[in-house]
Amino acid sequence: MISDLKPYLEYKDSGLPWLGRVPGHWDVLPHRALFEEVKEREQPNEQMLSVTITRGIIKQRDLLAGSSKKDSSKLDKSAYKLVCPGDIAYNKMRAWQGAIGVSALRGIISPAYVVQRLRDAHNPRYFHHLFRTPGFAKEAESWSYGITSDMWSLRPEHFKAIYSPLPPDEEQAVIVRFLDHATHRLDKAIWAKRKTIALLNEQKQAIIHRAATRGLDSDVPLKDSGIPWLGQIPAHWKVMPLKRTCSLVRDGTHLPPARTMTGYPLLSVRNMMGGRLVRRADDSFISKADFEQLNSSFVVRPNDVLMAIVGATLGKVAVVDDIGPFQIQRSVSILRPRSELMSHAFLVTFLRSPRLQQHLWQSVAFSAQPGIYLGFVANIPVPVPPTIAEQVSICDSLQRELSPIDTAISRIEREIELLREYRTRLIADVVTGKLDVRKAAARLPELECAPADEPVLAEMEEAGDELAEDNA
């Protein structure tokens, strides 16, 4: 189906750098000719909607479900804007990042958002696909204004000045039908691969739990740890509060980052990647004076163990490598194992174990976001094999056992990334007329509905979904 696609026979120059050539029978029109802004309000009892980068327009309760995000909308919703099915809505501050789409729902959105409605009976799903392409996002960025990138805003008058391609109405319907079918197939393939990764991660968690609570010998005599959530451990192991196994248990600095790109790095949970602490191009910094003041009290050292204690990544663990001088933000706890009692590798293994992670989340305190107190961390009961040699042997064996699983996960993740890239490119090429799908669409069977328990691709990728400006 997809491999047979070819370009149109005749093209013309659109006059737009982001669009290039378009089929000769397509129009290219300014949005002022295609859309009208609507500002219908006084519908406070309608359901709240959210405009997201990855999922388009969804119910706010679906965004909040299973998330640490909170409803930040105002109690009085009389000023919120009504969105009807077929309307295009976008987040002014994030349209250039892809926070735009057509709504299949009736509801209300933040007054800071913009609602546009097609003037004629064009297919809104065509524009949904078009407006979420990288090319259009770049064009929206060029029309957005603000002092800094995090304040750029695509105002309605500038949205109206943007030009977009307009295929004939019947061809819009054909394009939408083809893309619905093609993306459904690609999403199913990606969903299947994500299920495989989930199963591999479950296998990993079982292996980690066994290593952290049983060691290497499956026939070792066991005893009750005295900790309900920990269960039994080898009879020759001890259980100690974490503070006894570490010479340092503290959080990072409370100082805010400086408004500068120079000084010393102030790292955070964002730098904890793949179990290691790594530098990033967008790191925050603190001044030389603040760094020297902090360094007079403590320095984060190689082989210190870090654990996130605030936010959606609570429980995330990493080991510090020798990456040069830096300080760490307060949302991360810093644990320094006593070399005579605890291997940093074994401590990391235990902190990553599923029962400990479950215990952390069952113990959280909520304010603006979930968190645990440093005193709680210090008193976490830790199973301790009696010798460092046994701890190191356990971790070495664990690494050998996990290595092929990690390799398989990395390979599947790369396959998913390639499918996502192909999906994005296919949509962009079709909606901008680089590929002609009319014959292919005519051969398509009726699109089968996705199973009720099968999430589409976008539902699996929530990193960019936020309630930005919903409290405006």
Could you please describe the fold and organization of this structure?
The chain folds into two domains: 228 residues, DNA methylase specificity domains (Adenine-n6-DNA-methyltransferase TaqI, Chain A, domain 2, Alpha-Beta Complex); 169 residues, DNA methylase specificity domains (Adenine-n6-DNA-methyltransferase TaqI, Chain A, domain 2, Alpha-Beta Complex). Helices cover 34% and strands 20% of the residues. The protein has 13 helices and 27 strands. It is elongated, with a radius of gyration of 27 Å.
What's the quick description here?
The protein has 472 residues and is of the alpha+beta class.
Write the layout of secondary structure elements.
Layout: E1 11-13, E2 21-23, E3 27-30, H1 31-34, E4 35-37, E5 49-52, E6 56-59, H2 60-64, E7 81-83, E8 88-91, E9 100-102, E10 107-109, E11 113-118, H3 124-131, H4 134-142, H5 156-159, E12 163-166, H6 169-214, E13 222-224, E14 232-234, E15 238-241, H7 242-245, E16 246-251, E17 264-267, E18 272-273, E19 276-277, E20 284-286, H8 288-295, E21 305-308, E22 317-319, E23 327-328, E24 332-337, H9 344-352, H10 354-362, E25 365-366, E26 370-371, H11 374-378, E27 381-384, H12 388-431, H13 438-442
Parallel strand pairs: 17-23
Antiparallel strand pairs: 1-2, 3-12, 4-11, 5-6, 7-10, 8-9, 8-11, 13-14, 15-27, 16-24, 17-20, 18-19, 21-22, 21-24, 25-26
| Oligomeric state, counting identical vs distinct chains | single chain
CATH topology of the largest domain: Adenine-n6-DNA-methyltransferase TaqI, Chain A, domain 2
Any idea what the CATH architecture of the largest domain is? Alpha-Beta Complex
Helical coverage, percent range:
25-40%
How many separate domains?
2
Task: Tell me the distance between the termini.
Answer: 46 Å
> How many beta-strand segments?
27
Main sheet attributes: strand count, strand direction, barrel closure? 4 strands, antiparallel
What's the Cα radius of gyration?
A: 27 Å
Round the mean pLDDT to the nearest integer and report it: 88
**Structural class category:** alpha+beta
Which regions are unreliable across 5 or more consecutive residues at pLDDT < 50? 449-472
Shape: elongated
Strand order in the sheet with the most strands: 4-11-8-9
Structure annotation, total helices: 13
CATH structural class of the largest domain: Alpha Beta
Bin the strand percentage.
15-25%
Task: Assign the CATH superfamily of the largest domain.
Answer: DNA methylase specificity domains
